[in-house]
Amino acid sequence: MPGRATGPLVLAAFALLLVPATVFAHQETGSITGIVSGLKHPVSGMDHVLAMISVGLWGAQLGAPAVWVLPVAFPMVMAFGGMLGLMGISLPGIEIGIAVSAIVLGAMIVTESRPPLWIAAVLVGFFAIFHGHAHGTELPAGSSGLLYSIGFVAATGTLHGVGIALGLVHAFRGGRLAVRAAGAAVSAAGVFFLARIFV
Predict the structure, then answer these.
(1) Which residues contact 109 (CB under 8 A, 6 or more apart)?
(2) Tally of helices (H runs) and strands (E runs) in the chain
(3) 158-174: pLDDT as tens digits
(4) CA-CA distance, 93 to 42, in Å (whole number)?
(5) Which pTM does this prediction carry?
(6) What is the C-alpha to C-alpha distance for residues 86 and 5, in angstroms, rounded to an integer?
(7) Do 1 and 171 form a contact (C-beta atoms < 8 A)?
(8) Burial code of 84-120, b = ≥16 C-beta within 10 A, e = fewer?
(9) HSE-up of 87 (CA within 13 Å, CB side)?
(10) Regarding predicted confidence, which is higher, 120 or 38?
């Protein structure tokens, strides 16, 4: 059984991720260079942070094998979306797709939805395309697409890991309710992100 200090430490790590000053991660066009910028980009906007943590949370809620399948599927498909963005291939509704990803993933958590694993993986992969494309389109000319891609994939995996760690509170009294509450908060944030697009 994990020590009593585990929960507060995980929550403290989560709080550190909430520091970004901007709501959207897609406002830094022209400033992205190399692997460090790739690492910073996914955590520079709350829309990305919450969606990616939700993937880990949902995986932890579903248990094995989803706890590792979903966090692996997301970065793999996200890299494909990033490649599309790097190649200049347009994809409509990027910001809408990212906001909806937070709404839907949060809803999956709050309702404790347990679809077949392949459906969960397809859903996560679908949203990963939007997140990856948003990252890919922000690489300025002359920068290393490879290093930047490695950075944002690594950062994404870390966020998934944070979500999984937070999901471990299932083992504690009231943990199941806490995870569902987190899902509700993510969905509410997604609604806010979506409203900002149209207002």
Answers:
(1) 54, 57, 58, 61, 179, 180, 182, 183, 186
(2) 8, 0
(3) 999 999 999 988 778 78
(4) 18
(5) 0.78
(6) 43
(7) yes
(8) bbbeeeebeebbebbbbbbbbbbbbbbeebeeeeeeb
(9) 10
(10) 120
CB atoms within 10 A of CB 12: 9
Measured CA to CA, the distance from residue 82 to residue 35 in angstroms comes to 14
Q: What letter represents residue 75's amino acid?
A: P
- Residue 11 confidence (pLDDT) above 60: no
Cα angle: 190, vertex 34, 127; to 5 degrees? 25
**C-alpha torsion 32→36→38→40, nearest 10:** -90
Distance (Å, whole) CA 92 – CA 84: 12
In the numeric block, which tokens belong to residue 15? Answer: 């709080």
Residue among 114, 157, 148 nearest 41 (CA): 148
CA distance 8 to 132: 31
Q: What is the per-residue pLDDT across 27-70, written as a single tens digit (0 to 9) for each?
A: 444 444 667 777 877 777 898 899 999 999 999 999 999 999 99
Residue 135 CA to residue 111 CA, distance in Å, equals: 30
Measured between alpha carbons, how far is 160 from 120 in angstroms, rounded to an integer?
A: 15
Q: Which two tokens stand for residue 22?
A: 């901007």
Judge whether residue 119 has pLDDT over 50. Answer: yes
